Amino acid sequence: MKKAVLIVLAVLAVFAVSAKDLAAQTDISWNLGIITGQDFKFSPFLWTTGVIFDIYLTPHLSLSPDVFATVHNFDFSAFYLSPSVLLNYQRNGFFLGGGVTKYWVLGSEVSGAPSSDVMFKANVGFRVYSIKLTLFAV
């Protein structure tokens, strides 16, 4: 866990230092969504919220670190925390990308810090003005 966090922070630091005008090259967005299982049913009800940073490396390529919290109903005694880093290709509002993510189970009802292995994460979506519609799979 510590190595992954340090790597993400190091990559962000390199881009922050090398960017001439970071504000012009970075989009920050907040996400609110619902997660389904492979059967596409909303039972159990899992909702997610998170922050996504799109750091543009070129006009069409961005490095997109994000962090999401996933909660069952509105019970915060246990929840998933999932940081990830994606490389996205963006053109004419559409984007497509892939990267890695890892899940940790946190909360007052959780002993220790159980976590998943590092997993592949893919996403595809469309941005219209300030609204970003995203579908991702882990």
Question: Please, could you describe this protein's structure?
Answer:
The protein is of the alpha+beta class. It has helices spanning 2-18, 22-25; strands at 26-35, 46-56, 61-72, 75-91, 94-101, 104-106, 119-128, 131-137. Strands 1, 2, 3, 4, 5, 6, 7 and 8 form an 8-stranded antiparallel β-sheet that branches. A hairpin with a 2-residue loop joins strand 4 and strand 5 (94-101). It starts with a helix and ends with a strand. The model has no long low-confidence stretch (mean pLDDT 80).
Gist of the model:
This protein has 138 residues and is of the alpha+beta class. It has helices at residues 2-18, 22-25; strands at 26-35, 46-56, 61-72, 75-91, 94-101, 104-106, 119-128, 131-137.
List the helices and strands and how they pair.
Layout: H1 2-18, H2 22-25, E1 26-35, E2 46-56, E3 61-72, E4 75-91, E5 94-101, E6 104-106, E7 119-128, E8 131-137
Antiparallel strand pairs: 1-2, 2-3, 3-4, 4-5, 4-6, 5-7, 7-8
Oligomer: single chain
Distance between the termini: 18 Å
- The residue fraction in helices comes out at 10-25%
The main β sheet shows up as: 8 strands, antiparallel
> Using DSSP, what is the number of strands?
8
CA radius of gyration is: 16 Å
- The ordered H/E elements are HHEEEEEEEE
Q: Which term fits the overall shape?
A: globular
Structural class: alpha+beta
Average pLDDT rating: 80
Number of helices: 2
Q: What fraction of residues sit in β-strands?
A: over 45%
Uncertain stretches of 5 or more adjacent residues? none
